[in-house]
């Protein structure tokens, strides 16, 4: 069962962790490359702020972004700002999201995200939690997949396994963590079943496109090539 209020609290805690870590940087560090190809740390921080505002739009019944081009332009515009400006923007946009999430609402309603994707409103806090946690890792400042809260890691593996379930480019795949948890995904492509096993952090890294899967154990075929998120 989804508890959106609990997820909102988790978002706030994750945001505070990120802000504390980023505050230890300097202006030069913000201009350095992140772990995301073509993006500096400033791009990642600008994206986090604009994503918070975009999810406020969704919660309040407006389009998530004016357009894909406008989204990209806003990130590019804000990426080169000094550290203090980034910190203020991430903090204030996070507060706007928190306030929108605290407003009385029908959390069972269906909302529209980008590119026609729909979801239940109650899942938006978890989607924001994903943004904050994974992009904190993407900054490359000492926060790793192994540092993510265990509950978050398990839920995000579940989410991504469901996202790739039946995908036409992914063969039937069993995902196993070293603690014995098993999930299935794929099934739309020829081949398989393939068994993929590893730590929860390594499985999440592969599913989320943050690791190449080299640390995983694969049986029954090659490690599937996953489509981009």
Automatic annotation (TrEMBL):
Residue intervals of the Mycothiol-dependent maleylpyruvate isomerase metal-binding domain: 12-139
Ranges where the MDMPI C-terminal domain occurs: 147-227
InterPro entries, per database record: DinB/YfiT-like, Maleyloyr_isom, MDMPI_C-term_domain, MDMPI_metal-binding, SCP2_sterol-bd_dom_sf
Keywords: Isomerase
Coiled coil: none
Entry GO MF terms: isomerase activity
NCBIfam families: maleylpyruvate isomerase family mycothiol-dependent enzyme
Name under which the protein is recorded: Maleylpyruvate isomerase family mycothiol-dependent enzyme
Organism of derivation: Streptomyces heliomycini
């Amino acid at each position: 069962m989804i508890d959106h209020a609990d997820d909102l609290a988790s978002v706030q805690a994750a945001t505070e962790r990120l802000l504390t870590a980023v505050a230890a940087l300097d202006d030069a560090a913000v201009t350095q490359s992140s772990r995301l190809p073509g993006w500096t740390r400033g791009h990642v921080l600008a994206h986090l702020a604009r994503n918070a505002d975009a999810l406020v739009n969704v919660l309040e019944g407006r389009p998530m972004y004016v357009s894909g081009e406008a989204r990209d332009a806003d990130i590019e515009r804000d990426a080169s700002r000094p550290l203090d400006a980034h910190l203020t923007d991430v903090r204030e946009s996070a507060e706007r999201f928190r306030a929108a999430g605290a407003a009385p609402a029908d959390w069972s309603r269906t909302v529209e995200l980008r590119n026609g994707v729909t979801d239940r409103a109650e899942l938006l806090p978890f989607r924001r939690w994903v943004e904050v946690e994974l992009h904190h890792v993407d900054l490359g400042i000492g926060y790793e997949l192994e540092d993510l809260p265990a509950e978050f890691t398990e839920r995000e593996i579940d989410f991504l396994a469901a996202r790739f379930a039946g995908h036409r480019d992914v063969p039937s795949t069993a995902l196993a963590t070293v603690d014995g948890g098993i999930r299935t995904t794929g099934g739309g492509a020829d081949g398989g079943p393939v068994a993929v096993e590893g730590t929860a952090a390594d499985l999440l890294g592969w599913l989320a496109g943050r690791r190449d899967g080299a640390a995983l154990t694969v049986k029954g075929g090659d490690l599937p090539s996953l489509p981009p998120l």
